[in-house]
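Cross-check.
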Amino acid sequence: MTNVCYGCFRPLDEGKTKCPVCGFDTASKQSLPFLPLGAELQKGRYIVGKKLMSNNESTKYAAFDNNMNKVVNIREFLPNGLCARKKDSSKIVLNSEKASAYKRLLGKYLEYNRTLARLKDCSAVVQVSDIFIENNTAYVIEERETLVSLSDYIKKHGGRISWETARTLFMPLLNTLEKMHRNGISHYGIGPGNLKINTEGKLKLQNFSIPEMRKMGTDLRPMLISGCSAPEQYDDYSVLDESTEIYGFTAALFYALTGSVPEDVEKRRKDNRLLISTAVNKNLPSYVRQALADGLQFDRDKRLGSFVDLKAELSAAPTAKTIKEEMSQPDFDDDDDDVPVKKKRKKRSGSRIYGVISCIVSLVIFVIIGTLWLQENPFAKMFEPENAASDSDVEITGELVTVPNLVGVKYEIAVEEADKTPDYQLLKAVEEEFSDDVPEGYIASQFPEAYSEETQGYSLYITVSKGAKQRELPKIEGKTVDQVAQLLGDESFVTTQIFEYSDTVKKGLVIGYDAHAPGDKLEYGSSLVIKVSKGAEPKPEDSERRSSDSDTDSDSSEESGQEE
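Predicted model, tokenized:
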């Protein structure tokens, strides 16, 4: 595609690079390890645009579907720290130590998104239209909508919304989550940032990721949401379940109703109370307050365990809840109403014991048969994720080398050294960072970390320091304007000039600062006014002499004219 904006894919005028609609500059570069602007997937069907977001599991791009002639979103499996991409290439490369974890997670990513794609009738879930493998990784094509984040919506409505409004937004999502978990799909990242509202006023759940990214102790670096992630997500050994999702959903509802998320896990570990202002509290129905408390229990054993229970509490249906509790009582039986209660207990007790013994025997037999079957199972490969990356799909390159420490090295020197070695390619971040410790023009940080081991040919990402954010003003008195402009320009100060008379500074030289003094500290990029000398101010007698000389010249001219 030519002459098109890679932000919104609208046509651009000939010779123009900046989009007048969305403001994206197509002449900009997309830094590694992300796909370059204009990259083609599926033999040119999809054209990759700007990066929309990235987490530790995947990266989302704007894209154009040439077959359907519409803008879509593409999610690329790009786990942070487990893979890299070489310059001028779209293909993912790994080292041998990380290949196993990468392939295992890639298989889970494919399985997860294929299940998600089958939930076509869930309006609150982003719709998946295509999944494929390319470049040694997987891509998921999502429908694109105009959406506003829940947090922005709440801010525009005074910082919180009423229960009536929240019920309209959240109850359909609650039904969707119930169906998702029945189909083996979890989100575990529900929070204000991952909930969006479309133009029809419906709440949509975005940014689905495999469960390994939503808890501690996995091969992926976890991304948890303070105040919304459940306590068990911070535990390396806990198993996540429906009650974990209930915590996140209830925390998001709490945010919508109060304007703030619950306290983070560490604070709630010490004090489990949920604090709600009096103004909010008096406007919430008692059953809603109870549902919030039950869904946000710190102790999972005390928390609501199913969306059915949460929906019952939020629906203000105490009668239904009472019936449900009644049904669970041991004395309740819907068969043989004439049988005495004691006899029914005995009958059920006997059948229960028999059932437990039968289950144990069956389980032992099943385990033995299953173990033997899996050892020789000719159909075992049928249960591997379809199109999962095989050894031949993953590029294993080179020997392991030690990462050098470039922090504190001058950028130009680092570039020269990188050109001399095949061990790594140096990649500079577009954004620089301020540092009080590292001088401007020197490397402030790097990834991977120094002294770790990587496969030869890896990408070494660096960020160059902009120096301290607060800069000290140098002495400028007596210097030329060009000298001062250079001196202050090196510190990124913006200067303007005013002119004054000076008895001590020659004409054309700088007197000093207008409102500051040498040694003052100003923020990087601040504006300054400097005073430039006009020379010594003329004395009164000099003015009279010039005036007298002028009069004499005038008289002489008149006399000369009369003689003529």
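The mean pLDDT is 82. The CA atoms of residues 127 and 143 lie 6 Å apart. Passed to J.P. for a second look.
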